[in-house]
Amino acid sequence: MELVLALLVGLVLGAAVAVAVCRQLGVVRGAGVTAERDLLRERVVDLEAALSDDAQTAAALAPLRDALGRVEQQVGTLERDRTHQYAALEQTMAQVHASTTALGRQTQSLAGSLNASTVRGAWGEVQLRRVLEHAGLLARCDFDEQVHRVSRHDRQVRPDVVVRLPGQKFLVVDSKAPMVAFLKAQADDLPGDERTRLLREHASHLQGHVRALAAKDYWSAFESSPEMVVCFVPSEAMLSAALAADPSLHEDAMARRVVLVGPGTLMALLRTVAFTWQQDALTANARELMAVGRELYARLGTLGSHTARMGGALQRSVEAYNQMVGALESRVLVTARRMHELEVVEDELPVARPVETGPRVLTAVELLEAATAQDARPQLDLSAESLGRAAAGTVSDDAAPRWTGRESTA
């Protein structure tokens, strides 16, 4: 009985405890739901505020988005152009590489050709002819090429060019192109001392050409030629390299009557020659013009004298005509009018009038001098030179003071 009572009491107590626990759990759960509701409400408010802010930000960033779109499009265009340009540049570089390779082969071929003396000589002659033509000189007119002459040593000489100077004079020009050592000295991987040695060898070769030209005595093969020969070096670089390696080369060449010139110096020299020809032509024309002027002046004087004599003859003819008219009026027509008065004839005689206009008198001084030169009286020559000789007592009969007709007799 007590056991059953204890069980009942336990059941009651368990039910009470369960009810209390359930109530407590409901309270706690309600509080949690309330808190969660409040949190959700706040989250909704925050989300609404954030959504409003995002809309404003999106509206503010809309122009920037458009600008970024345009920039992206421009970047795409630039990238496409860059790709095309890189492709074109690569093609151009390939062409440049091919051209450089071909130029290198041609340069090597040219350098190999210039190592031959005949090719160097022909190249030097071609360069010399170009400089002559640029200076305005004409072949076979102002200069001759490969002229054969005999020097004073009875040796056949043949300079490259003989330039004609005014007054039947000549200037000898010979081309020399020592290039073997000079071309070797232009190598890239050449040591400094080896390059210096090659340049000295180049200067020595040019020195040898100078001695050879001096020994030929080109100027002795021409009657009127300066006692020198112009040695033309076709390249300024070759000449300057030789002079830098041997500074005494120029002075030694001038001592041997050989003038070393490059294209620039030869151009200046030939321009001077061309200018000399122009001045010579102007001088000849001036002489001819002076002779023609003097002849014209003399002929004008002769014409003036003839004109003066013709004027005098016309004046005398007018005077004779007037005298004839006077005699006709006073001696003949008077008697003839008597016949008209006696009615022997019906028509009256015409009246003969004297000529009142005479020939125009000469007024030009030149014409008057020419016209009166024959009638001028001789006058005494009172020049200072004549008086000085007279005072010194060395006056001859021909040099004595004399009348010239030009001095005044006052």
Automatic annotation (TrEMBL):
Q: Which domain of life is it from?
A: Bacteria
**UniProt KW keywords:** Coiled coil, DNA recombination
Q: Which residues form a coiled coil?
A: none
Explain the purpose of this protein.
Involved in DNA recombination.
Pfam families listed in its UniProt record: RmuC
Its protein name is DNA recombination protein RmuC
Where does this protein come from, organism-wise?
A: Pedococcus aerophilus
Segments carrying the region annotation (Disordered) are 389-410
Q: Which family does it belong to?
A: Belongs to the RmuC family.
